[in-house]
């Protein structure tokens, strides 16, 4: 990119498109006025209000719980699925399995939500479980659609990984289970972390599926945001958004520092190896 | 050296004819990447119909030089003229040059025919003519039956021939080939070398071939430029490069050679006498460049130019003659390689044709042998 | 001693096989139960009748016992009137067509913005590609709802764009873009853009740069090389990205609900309203099945492309 040509402009436009709305959101969270679009002075009162909004805080707490549990479950299930798809060769029903893994990636949320709700209702009718709808059903629903994302992340990591490492370990006498815990798991650990974070975010972000499968008393944070946004603009939401952006930015910042340090460590190790070797 | 030139000696050697103008002129071209000098003040003249080889080790700047000719890189300094036209600022798609890529760079989404037709289409050649020329070209590289296939359905050797056909179909005046035979096995490689030379002679195209295979360079090319760390170490015909290396690098890079360090004793005409402790005798070299007495030199002698005998030669003057003990023998079929250790500790390599049947074993391990060679055998290398 | 060892070995290897079976079975059963079976239930309920009860739909199968004759029979009642309603009512047909149109426009807009971005990033210095891609994905980690919300403030009358236009002097009064199809296009493009850029980038980045050099060497100008080499070779990325945007966009609910006007009918909204406002579960199910039928072909293409990419990665 020597000249500032068409491509650079396109890139600049794309990033502006992605970030200007978020930046405006942050700026107006400090606006004095309730009118979110006209600047009338600096204030942090919306943050204070946010901290006293009990309904919202309760919903946030519930959402974090659901997100944490369902992300953990979907990492477990997604890892099994990713392993099955990359390491087990052909097995009976693999095509159906692969289809059930990829379909949720693009399935419209209204369909997922409706179908899961009808399942829960039918199960309650026949089995008596789950008893009504609430945290459990939301968690199951979230696990179901997030595990696909986790499986795809892990699958691509496993596919990119040298399978001969595992074969070498087996050749040296390690049992499959041992190979998994000693060789495979450490190598796919970054993908596990990425998958967990992805599942957590997706769960924390979902309003449609949760609306279908939640019951009275189990309102998640996105549901609260959704209804308050529907009734119009509220600077409290700006404040909440700013806090979220702050959390994400901090997370990314810490992660990049950790990665840069690891990279430097790796380089140093290599240097040492060269000098000693 | 096993390779035999497969090219008939050209009657006219244009580089020796002062009246000829070079087709490609590279003038003091330097290319740097950051601080790293990849090509360092290279000057070369290449004439029409030449089969010119760029030979050198990995990272010596061969590809970089070729890419500057093709127009993918701009020289940091210096000028390149093709057919008298300064190439500075002329993009690749406007140069009268085609290149055959090291990786072949075949378009994976096009059939063999479409690949070959691509260049003609860019020139707006009529459809019927494109078809004729593609058919003709595929016939020439013996791929007529494969026109409808995609590159991934071809073997390595077939791909290589598609790449060749694609770069030749536009009938360029100058064809650049970057390690064209690198991916082929030895047999196929030798056959393709012949094919390349035949095609080149038939079409009258100037070829510049990059290779790190010295045998390939020797057999195919009219002239060779040996590159080392971005610098041209020597330019010459295969014979010149092999028989009269200008410096230690060229001598050691091409084939194997024995080096004896010593000092000049005297110079008479073009005969130089060198005293070498390493060799254990005085070395007399004919047709050498005169050097002042006392100056340090190396004398290079090819292994096949040394004769081996069990009996000491009677009546010699002691020059170009030394003795040693056979330490290793490698039997290669047509020749054997003997590693002979001199009393000074120096190991000398000697190749001798196996004239007699091996079972008779005239010379064997731990035999004391005499090594002799003629004054024409050695080359004096300064510095 | 030998037999003990062999028994142990065979036992352990059986556990190994068994372990593998479990690793496949757990996610398999989970998906069968929570992904496959629900579709069958939706399909079933789409043939039932809406009744005022808990749950609000009639049972498809009934076990009828005739006391007098002493016989009993299984009666299956399939009510296809729900589908007739979908086919007969302009509202539904319009909603389907609208959804397809809005999803198609969104896909094209994502492609128009995303392709140059992905191309520029793939062409950038290798050390800068990672961070540049990171910047594309980053907004995805903040809440989707909040990103939609951000556009409300920008698009509404007296909002950022309106004020900007007025300030520049292009318009004299407030401009209301919010609650229109355009607002939906913008919002959906905004939310789905990363899904377009990611697959595009990964195919463009994998492309061998010497192919473009070869094209130039054969006399092709840069723009022509782009058309004849880069574009066809990035087709898998274009297809994957487009499907990744198009399919969920057809069934999108939140964006049209928040940014669209009352007449921005989309099938996701219709389904939602049938379910929550009208409490007509059978019709909602029929809408879902009809939506799935529209999406079956794109979903299968997507699975094919996805499968091929997984093969290629190996
Ligand atoms: N784009 C580039 N940026 C930085 N350094 C480069 C670049 N291209 C080449 N080099 C460096 O220039 C030197 C010469 O490279 P070149 O490719 O010309 O070697 P070569 O003689 O073709 O070697 P080989 O036989 O391995 O192909 C190498 O050290 C290489 O690392
Ligand atoms: Mg090279």
UniProtKB/TrEMBL annotation, chain A:
Gene3D superfamilies tied to this protein: MetI-like
Q: Which UniProt keywords apply?
A: Cell membrane, Membrane, Transmembrane, Transmembrane helix, Transport
Bilayer-crossing residues are: 7-30, 59-85, 97-123, 135-158, 179-199, 237-260
Major location category of this protein? membrane
InterPro entries per record: Bact_Polyamine_Transport (IPR051789), MetI-like (IPR000515), MetI-like_sf (IPR035906)
Q: Name one GO cellular component term.
A: plasma membrane
GO process terms (BP): transmembrane transport
- Domain named ABC transmembrane type-1: residues: 60-258
The way this protein sits in the membrane is described as: Multi-pass membrane protein
Localisation per UniProt entry: Cell membrane
Q: Does the keyword Transport apply?
A: yes
Cytoplasm as a keyword? no
- Tell me the protein family, please: Belongs to the binding-protein-dependent transport system permease family. CysTW subfamily.
Q: What is this protein called?
A: Putrescine ABC transporter permease PotI
Origin organism lineage: Bacteria, Pseudomonadati, Pseudomonadota, Alphaproteobacteria, Rhodospirillales
TrEMBL record, chain B:
Give the E.C. number(s): 7.6.2.11
Catalytic activities: ATP + H2O + polyamine-[polyamine-binding protein]Side 1 = ADP + phosphate + polyamineSide 2 + [polyamine-binding protein]Side 1
Q: Could you tell me which PROSITE patterns the record lists for this protein?
A: ABC_TRANSPORTER_1, ABC_TRANSPORTER_2
Q: Name one GO molecular function term.
A: ATP binding
The answer to whether the entry has keyword ATP-binding is yes
- Top enzyme class: translocase
**Could you tell me which Pfam families the record lists for this protein?**
ABC_tran, TOBE_2
Does Lyase show up as a keyword for this record?
A: no
InterPro entries the UniProt entry points to: AAA+_ATPase, ABC_SmlMolc_Importer, ABC_transporter-like_ATP-bd, ABC_transporter-like_CS, Mo/tungstate-bd_C_term_dom, P-loop_NTPase, PotA-like, Transp-assoc_OB_typ2
All copies of domain ABC transporter, residue ranges: 24-254
Q: Which UniProt keywords apply?
A: ATP-binding, Cell inner membrane, Cell membrane, Membrane, Nucleotide-binding, Translocase, Transport
Complex and partners? The complex is composed of two ATP-binding proteins (PotA), two transmembrane proteins (PotB and PotC) and a solute-binding protein (PotD).
What family does the database annotate?
Answer: Belongs to the ABC transporter superfamily. Spermidine/putrescine importer (TC 3.A.1.11.1) family.
Q: What role does this protein play? A: Part of the ABC transporter complex PotABCD involved in spermidine/putrescine import. Responsible for energy coupling to the transport system.
The protein's matches in PANTHER family, at most eight in alphabetical order, are given as: PUTRESCINE TRANSPORT ATP-BINDING PROTEIN POTG, SPERMIDINE/PUTRESCINE IMPORT ATP-BINDING PROTEIN POTA
- Name under which the protein is recorded: Spermidine/putrescine import ATP-binding protein PotA
- Species in which this protein is naturally found: Azospirillum melinis
Species lineage, top-down?
A: Bacteria, Pseudomonadati, Pseudomonadota, Alphaproteobacteria, Rhodospirillales
Gene from which the chain derives: potA
From TrEMBL, chain C:
User: Under what name is this protein listed?
Assistant: ABC transporter permease subunit
The protein's UniProt keywords, in alphabetical order, are: Cell membrane, Membrane, Transmembrane, Transmembrane helix, Transport
Tell me which family the UniProt entry assigns to this protein.
Belongs to the binding-protein-dependent transport system permease family. CysTW subfamily.
Tell me which PROSITE patterns the record gives: ABC_TM1 (PS50928)
Domain ABC transmembrane type-1 positions: 96-302
Principal localisation:
membrane
| Domain of life of the organism encoding this protein | Bacteria
Record keyword Endoplasmic reticulum present: no
UniProt cross-references to InterPro entries, sorted A to Z: MetI-like (IPR000515), MetI-like_sf (IPR035906)
Its membrane topology: Multi-pass membrane protein
Tell where it localizes. Answer: Cell membrane
| Regions crossing the membrane | 21-47, 100-120, 132-152, 182-204, 225-250, 281-302
């Amino acid at each position: 990119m020597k000249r500032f040509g068409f491509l650079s402009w396109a890139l600049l436009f794309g990033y502006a498109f992605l970030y200007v709305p978020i930046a405006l959101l942050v700026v107006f969270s400090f606006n004095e006025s309730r009118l979110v679009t006209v600047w009338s002075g600096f204030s942090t009162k919306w943050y204070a209000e946010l901290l006293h909004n009990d309904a919202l805080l309760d919903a946030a707490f519930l959402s974090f719980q659901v997100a944490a549990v369902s992300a953990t479950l979907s990492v477990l299930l997604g890892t099994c699925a990713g392993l099955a798809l990359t390491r087990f060769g052909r097995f009976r029903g693999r095509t159906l399995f692969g289809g059930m893994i990829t379909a949720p990636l693009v399935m419209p949320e209204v369909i997922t939500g409706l179908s899961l709700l009808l399942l829960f209702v039918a199960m309650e009718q026949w089995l008596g479980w789950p008893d009504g709808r609430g945290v459990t059903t939301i968690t199951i629903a979230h696990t179901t659609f997030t595990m696909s994302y986790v499986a795809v992340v892990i699958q691509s990591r496993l596919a990119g990984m040298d399978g001969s490492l595992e074969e070498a370990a087996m050749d040296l006498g390690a049992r499959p289970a041992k190979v998994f815990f000693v060789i495979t798991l450490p190598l796919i650990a970054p993908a596990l972390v990425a998958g967990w974070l992805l599942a957590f975010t997706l769960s924390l972000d979902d309003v449609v599926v949760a609306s279908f499968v939640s019951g009275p008393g189990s309102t998640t944070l996105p549901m609260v945001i959704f209804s308050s946004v529907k009734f119009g603009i509220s600077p409290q939401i700006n404040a909440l958004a700013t806090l979220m952006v702050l959390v994400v930015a901090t997370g990314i910042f810490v992660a990049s520092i950790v990665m840069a340090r690891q990279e430097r460590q790796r380089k140093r190790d290599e240097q040492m190896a060269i000098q000693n070797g | 050296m096993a390779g035999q030139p497969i090219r008939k000696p050209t009657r006219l050697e244009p580089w020796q004819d002062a009246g000829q103008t070079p087709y490609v002129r590279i003038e003091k071209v330097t290319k740097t990447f950051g601080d790293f000098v990849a090509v360092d003040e290279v000057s070369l003249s290449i004439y029409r119909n030449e089969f010119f080889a760029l030979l050198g080790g990995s990272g010596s700047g061969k590809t970089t030089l070729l890419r500057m000719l093709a127009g993918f890189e701009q020289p940091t300094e210096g000028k390149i003229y093709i057919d008298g036209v300064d190439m500075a600022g002329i993009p690749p798609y406007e140069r009268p040059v085609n290149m055959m890529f090291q990786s072949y760079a075949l378009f994976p989404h096009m059939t063999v025919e479409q690949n070959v037709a691509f260049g003609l289409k860019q020139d707006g050649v009529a459809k019927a003519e494109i078809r004729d020329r593609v058919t003709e070209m595929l016939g020439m590289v013996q791929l007529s039956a494969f026109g409808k296939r995609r590159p991934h359905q071809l073997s390595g050797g077939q791909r290589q021939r598609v790449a060749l056909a694609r770069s030749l179909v536009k009938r360029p005046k100058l064809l650049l080939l970057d390690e064209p035979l690198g991916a082929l096995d030895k047999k196929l490689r030798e056959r393709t070398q012949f094919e390349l030379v035949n095609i080149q002679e038939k079409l009258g195209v100037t070829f510049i071939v990059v290779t790190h295979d010295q045998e390939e360079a020797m057999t195919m090319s009219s002239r060779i430029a040996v590159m080392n760390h971005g610098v041209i170490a020597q330019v010459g015909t295969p014979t010149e490069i092999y028989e009269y290396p200008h410096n230690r690098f060229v001598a050691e890079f091409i084939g194997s050679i024995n080096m004896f360090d010593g000092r000049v004793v005297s110079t008479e005409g073009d005969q130089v006498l060198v005293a070498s402790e390493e060799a254990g005798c005085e070395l007399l070299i004919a047709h050498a460049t005169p050097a002042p007495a006392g100056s340090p030199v190396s004398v290079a002698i090819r292994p096949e130019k040394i004769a081996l005998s069990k009996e000491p030669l009677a009546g010699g003057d002691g020059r170009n003659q030394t003795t040693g003990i056979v330490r290793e023998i490698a039997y290669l079929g047509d020749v054997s390689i003997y590693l002979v250790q001199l009393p000074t500790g120096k190991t000398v390599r000697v190749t001798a044709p196996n004239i007699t049947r091996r079972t008779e074993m005239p010379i064997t391990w731990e035999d004391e042998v005499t090594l002799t060679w003629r004054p024409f055998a050695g080359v004096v290398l300064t510095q | 001693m030998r037999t003990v060892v062999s028994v142990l070995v065979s036992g352990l290897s059986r556990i190994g096989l068994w372990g593998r079976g479990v690793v496949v079975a757990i996610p398999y059963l989970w998906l069968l139960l929570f992904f496959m079976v629900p579709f069958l239930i939706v399909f079933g309920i789409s043939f039932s009748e809406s009744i005022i009860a808990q749950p609000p739909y009639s049972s498809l199968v009934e076990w009828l016992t005739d006391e007098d004759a002493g016989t009993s029979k299984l009666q299956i009642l399939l009510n296809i009137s729900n589908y007739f309603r979908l086919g007969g009512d302009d509202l539904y047909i319009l909603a389907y067509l609208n959804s397809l149109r809005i999803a198609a426009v969104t896909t094209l807009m994502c492609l128009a913005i995303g392709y140059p971005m992905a191309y520029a990033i793939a062409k950038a210095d290798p050390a800068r590609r990672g961070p540049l891609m990171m910047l594309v994905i980053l907004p995805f980690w903040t809440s989707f709802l909040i990103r939609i919300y951000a556009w409300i403030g920008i698009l509404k009358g007296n909002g950022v764009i309106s004020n900007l236009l007025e300030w520049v002097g292009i318009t004299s009064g407030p401009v209301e873009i919010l609650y229109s199809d355009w607002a939906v296009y913008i919002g959906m493009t905004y939310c789905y853009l990363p899904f377009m850029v990611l697959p595009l980038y990964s195919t463009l980045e994998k492309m061998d740069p010497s192919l473009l050099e070869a094209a130039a060497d054969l006399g092709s100008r840069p723009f022509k090389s782009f058309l004849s080499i880069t574009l066809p070779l990035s087709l898998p990325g274009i297809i994957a990205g487009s499907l990744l945007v198009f399919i969920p966009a057809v069934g999108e609910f939140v964006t049209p609900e928040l940014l669209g006007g009352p007449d921005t009918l989309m099938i996701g909204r219709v389904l939602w309203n049938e379910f929550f406002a009208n409490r007509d579960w059978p019709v909602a199910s029929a809408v879902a099945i009809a939506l799935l039928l529209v999406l079956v072909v794109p979903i299968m293409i997507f699975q094919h492309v996805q499968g091929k990419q997984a093969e290629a990665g190996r």
